[in-house]
From TrEMBL:
GO terms for molecular function: oxidoreductase activity. InterPro entries: Class-I_Pyr_Nuc-Dis_Oxidored, FAD/NAD-bd_sf, FAD/NAD-binding_dom, FAD/NAD-linked_Rdtase_dimer_sf, Pyr_nuc-diS_OxRdtase, Pyr_nucl-diS_OxRdtase_dimer. Its cofactor is FAD. This is NAD(P)/FAD-dependent oxidoreductase. It comes from the Bacteria. Residues 364-469 form the Pyridine nucleotide-disulphide oxidoreductase dimerisation domain. It holds the Pfam family Pyr_redox_2. Residues 11-328 form the FAD/NAD(P)-binding domain. Belongs to the class-I pyridine nucleotide-disulfide oxidoreductase family. It comes from Rhodococcus jostii. Its EC number is 1.-.-.-. It is an enzyme of class 1 (oxidoreductase). Keywords: FAD, Flavoprotein, NAD, Oxidoreductase.
Length: 477
């Protein structure tokens, strides 16, 4: 860090947002050089994923998965979950919200961590707090992520409902819960809340299916599983209003006051102890002082495949650009972005695939850690046909030696979407136990444009669940 002569501290690269995407962008931009980087974070270094999303949610889901496997394995006995132990293990993964280890990592990479809220106040210039000015020699990267969106339903915000941060960091288990939404966060939250002892759980879903962005069979299987666990799922639900007489900010993950009454059209009043709102995310860009020309209609920064905005010195990675709201995709973009910044700083040409983020275009993998798991990559059959791609599909139940050995109640389904013209995958979806471990093979086949005829020679090991690949190929003979 140096002084620019104008009172501003000077760095080669300034990154706003200390989550996984920001960390990776800073690290890659200065790797193997004497360049300097500042990482600005107003909360905890490590970001949403580390403390309020990916890590705590998966820590809450895994015990229920293990218990389910044990209960469906003859010769193995299993009692109920020890909720206190489950929550303690979750807290160990979030470091009890202590980010000192993340700061130590940044220090080890030569990255300066700066605490505070930042806004862009000029060309390559960032102001932190009221008066601390920073200037970037090469690049400013926006990696501020998103925040939970709460609809304008009458009375909902005043009721102080739980958002995803409360659900992942719960400190007490409500007896009755309403989950508003039918997407990934809603399905995962409902899964662990039931596992942890919620007695009455109702999902209030505006649409006609869970996980509507996936192949229809995926949401259908998750809905059946949740109902088997005791959930009530209301599809086509019109939430007209919410009332809570004694709403109190009792802290993240604690019940926020007295009972909540939900007015759902055509239903008896729904009375619960807590409401979880899982209706999407909104970009955290409003306070950055960005020129409106840089943002799309939803408030996301628009970038090219180098992750550059209309201002060549300004980049955006992760949720802030709205291209794919997933931690692994944000980190992927950040790696590309960091390499682009480094190459430009050193005067090197941007030649080669590593300098373009192309996986965002129809090659995004995702795992929904519900029960059953849902993993998918690429596009669905409907998306392909809507785009005018001539496709054929192959579907089979996951019923191989590996799945029957995994647990007695194993139930799964798989679907491939195949481009007829090239005989390559454009989409794949799996639903079943631990199918998150199947999706990377599909991702490699899709990204590598491997013809299905060649996949006959990618022999799955026996007896594994991966043998479903053979069943899929056989179904197409």
């Amino acid at each position: 860090m140096t002084d620019s002569g104008s009172g501003a501290e000077e760095f080669d690269v300034i990154v706003i947002g200390g989550g996984p995407a920001g960390e990776n962008a800073a690290s890659y931009a200065i790797a193997g050089s004497d360049r300097t980087a500042a990482l600005i974070e107003h909360e905890l270094v490590g970001g949403e994923c580390s403390y309020w999303a990916c890590m705590p949610s998966k820590a809450l889901l895994r015990p229920g998965e293990v218990l389910g496997a044990a209960r469906n394995m003859p010769g193995v006995s299993a009692g109920p979950l020890d909720v206190d132990a489950v929550l303690a293990r979750r807290d160990s993964f979030t470091g009890n919200h202590d980010d000192s280890s993340q700061v130590m990592w940044a220090d080890s990479q030569g990255i300066d961590v700066i605490r505070g809220s930042a806004r862009i106040t000029g060309d390559r210039t960032v102001t932190v707090g009221d008066s601390r000015r920073l200037r970037a020699r090469h690049a400013v990267v926006v990696a501020t992520g998103t925040t939970a969106a709460v609809p304008d339903t009458p009375g909902l915000r005043a009721a102080l409902p739980w958002i995803s941060r409360d659900a992942t960091n719960l400190r007490e288990i409500p007896r009755r819960v309403a989950v508003i939404g039918g997407g990934v966060v809603a399905c995962e939250s409902a899964t662990w809340l039931l596992d942890l002892g919620v007695e009455e759980l109702t999902m209030v879903v505006r649409g006609r299916a869970l996980l509507p962005k996936n192949e229809p069979f995926a949401g259908e299987r998750v809905a059946r599983s949740l109902e088997k666990k005791g959930a009530r799922v209301l599809f086509g639900a019109d939430l007209r209003g919410v009332e809570r007489a004694d709403a109190r900010d009792t802290g993240i993950g604690r019940i926020h006051g007295g009972p909540v009454t939900l007015d759902v059209a055509g239903q008896e009043p729904l009375v619960v102890d807590e409401v979880v709102v899982a209706t999407g995310r909104t970009p955290a860009t409003a306070a950055l002082g960005l020129d409106a020309r840089l943002l799309n209609s939803h408030g996301y920064l628009t970038t090219d495949d180098h992750l550059t905005t209309a201002d060549e010195w300004l980049y955006a990675v992760g949720d802030a650009n709205g291209r794919a709201l997933l931690t692994h995709m944000g980190k992927y973009q950040a790696r590309v972005c960091g390499d682009v910044i480094a190459a430009r700083a050193e005067g090197r040409p941007l030649e080669g695939a590593r300098f373009r983020a192309t996986a965002d275009h129809g090659q995004v993998p995702q795992v929904v850690f519900a029960d059953p798991e849902v993993s998918a990559v690429g596009i669905t059959e409907k998306e392909a046909r809507d785009a005018g791609v001539d496709v054929e599909t192959v579907e089979v139940d996951i019923a191989v030696a590996g799945s029957s050995l995994a647990r007695d109640d194993f139930s799964g389904h798989a679907k491939l979407v195949i481009d007829r013209a090239t005989d390559t995958l454009v989409g794949a979806t799996f639903a079943g136990t631990d199918v998150g471990e199947l999706i990377h093979a599909a991702t490699i086949a899709l990204v590598g444009k491997v013809p299905l005829d060649s996949l006959w020679h990618a022999v799955p090991s026996y007896p594994t669940v991966s043998e479903v690949w053979l069943r899929l190929l056989e179904a197409r003979r």
